[in-house]
Amino acid sequence: MQWKTIISLIFSLIIVIFAVANTSTVSINYIFGFIEIPLIIVIVGSALAGGLVIGMLGLVNQAKQHWKINSLKKEIVRLET
To answer: Using CA atoms, how far apart are residues 19 and 11, in angstroms rounded to an integer?
Structure first.
């Protein structure tokens, strides 16, 4: 578990350094128009969105494992009786 924390911190530090080095303004076009914002916000926002997606996928995976474990425990109880 500690190596995951260390790798996460290193990756976060790399993103922060990259974001701080890129402070110019960029134009983002979307369906209803466009907006000009600093590139640092785009970089950090993208990293946070990616982290959120990965976190949600991890939660779904844990829930599936939990359901599988519960069904296997019920199967064990059924087979023991």
So the answer is: 12
